[in-house]
Fold this sequence. Notes:
This protein is of the alpha+beta class. It has three helices and 23 strands. The protein has helices at residues 2-23, 94-136, 142-181; strands at 31-33, 35-37, 39-48, 53-57, 60-63, 69-73, 81-82, 87-91, 184-186, 191-196, 203-204, 217-220, 225-232, 244-249, 257-264, 277-284, 298-315, 324-329, 332-337, 339-343, 347-352, 359-361, 375-377. The longest helix has 43 residues, at 94-136.
Amino acid sequence: MRRRTRWIVAILVVVAAAVALRLTVLAPQPIEVRVAAVERGVVEDTVSNTRAGTVKARLRAKLSPQIGGLVVRLPHRQGERVAKGDLLLELDSSVQRAQLEVARREVVTAHRHAEDACLAATLAEKELVRAEGLDANGIASAQQLDTARSQRDRTRAACQAARAAVDQAEATVAAVQSQLDLTLLRAPFAGVIADVSTEVGEWITPSPPGVPIPAVIDLLDPSSLYVSAPIDEVDSERVAVGQEVRLSVDSRPGKHFMGHVVRIAPYVEDLLEQNRTVELEAELDDAAAAVGLLAGTSADVEVILDRRRDVLRVPTAAVGEGGTVLVLVDRRLVERTIKGGLSNWEFTEVLGGLAAGDQVVTLRDSTAVKPGAYAVPAHDDA
């Protein structure tokens, strides 16, 4: 009996040792997996641009004078802010000023001629009245009366012609003044000078009729910024003017701006048939937040179609085909199928299959990451 007991004890010791070795030295090495806790939060249904969008300015003008000439003044330089009507560029106007002086003197001369002609007409009118009085008394002859009438008509016509000459001379002054004004380029709106491509002393060459002179000043209003971005044609009917958007720009990584859709193109851009898109435009809700943004900067747009708050959610990367997820339970990976709700690239709403606090695998980067695997959280996710 004692011998049997000793054998039983020995066998139990061996079994215990084997179990201990299996659980320690010979235990399989657990794989490290990246996990995230199921939590409550906000989930949105969104549509994003398919290619990078662009920050643009609604008020932006590439300016050039309407005539050619020699640049004599550039009061403002790149980066300076100007008010509406401020002088941006002045061309040499010596010829136009000389022509204006000549035209003004011609106006003076025309006025003097008109005074003389109209005085003669007034005198002729008085002579006719006198002749008619003499004729009524039988003193003047018919020939004298006809001569007085002809003189009156001739001087009256000369007075009218002289006054027309005055109007013509004044019109010439206005025309020359307009040519003089064309030597000045003024800001059509308040803004910031983005670029100046000429210098004092350079000649701006006139272009043939119908061909604009190349722009020499780029003016934009930084308070009129908006983002233009393409979305896939499949999503075009889900997007509407007024919907909320989340904007981000490459020059401010990690920062987001809220805005809204203000325009959706009424056609599909089909230059690249394999990637047909619809252009949308979005403006920032807080114009002050756009201070410092540069037109031309790359930007991304997320149109928020729907939003649900305080719902269970998991990272979308954790959801596999068919709505399956891997849950880490007591160092074992267990596969579960969830019932999903709203979803975007970041989070998916959980309507069933998981509870708050469950640890789900967010990255299946190895075939070893599978149901039943022995696993522990990766150190950077622990």
